[in-house]
Amino acid sequence: MAKQSIFGRISTLVKANINALLDSAEDPQKMLDQLVRDYTNNIADAETAIAETIGNLRLLERDHDEDVKAAAEWGNKAIAASRKADELRAAGNTTDADKFDNLAKIALQRQISEENEARAIAPSIAAQTEVVEKLKDGLNGMKQKLDQLRSKRSELLARAKTAEAQNKVHDAVKSIDVLDPTSELGRFEDKVRRQEALAAGKAEIAASSIDAQFNQLEDIGELTEVEARLAALKTGGNAGAIEQ
C-alpha cells in the first residue's frame, strides 16, 4: 500500500501544471518554495520505495535463477542415475538397476518441482519489473519538474528584484522631478525665478530713472535758450531762432 501511495503521489505531481498553480496562488514565491519542499520530500520517498522494490525484484530474480539451476542439476542427476541403471541392467544386475531407476525418477520429480517454482515466480518478476520501470520514469519526471520549479523560482525572484529596482528608480526620479512644484528642486527653481523677476524689475526701474534724468536735462536746455532770447530782445537784437 505504501508503494502504491507513493506511486500515486508521483503520478499526481508529475501531471501537476506548475503555471496553473502559480496563477492561482496569492503568493507565487511561497507557493514555489512549498512545491520545491514537497517535490524534494516526495523524491526522497520515491527513491526509497524504488530501492525497496528493486531489492525485492532482485531477490525474486535470484530465487528464479536458483530454481532454474536446481532444475538443471536434478535433470543431470536423473540422467546419471538412468544411465547407471541401464549399465547395471545390461550387466544382469536388475535389482540395483531398479534402485537407480527409482533414483532417476526422484531426480525427475525434483526437477519438475523446481521448474514449477521457476515458472510461478516468472509473472511476479515481470510485474515487479514493470513497476520498477514506471517508478523510475515517474522519479525522472519528478526530478525534471523539480528543476522546472527551481528555475521558475529563480526567474520569479529575479523578476521581483528587477521590479523592485525599477520602482526605486521611478520613485527617485519622481522625487527630483523639476516639473513637480512640491519637490525641493521645484521650490528652489520658483525662488530663483522670483529673484530673477525682482532683478528685472529693479533694472526696469533704473532704466526709467535714467530716462527721466535725460528728460530733465532737455528741459533745462530749453529754459536756457528762452533766457538767451529774452536777453537779446532787451538789447534790441534778433529774437528769432538761432541759425544752425
TrEMBL record:
Coiled-coil residues: 132-166
Keywords associated with the record: Coiled coil
Record carries keyword Coiled coil: yes
Pfam families: PspA_IM30
InterPro entries in alphabetical order: PspA_VIPP1
Highest rank taxon of the organism: Bacteria
Family (UniProt): Belongs to the PspA/Vipp/IM30 family.
Protein name as annotated: PspA/IM30 family protein
Species per Swiss-Prot/TrEMBL record: Microbacterium gawkjiense
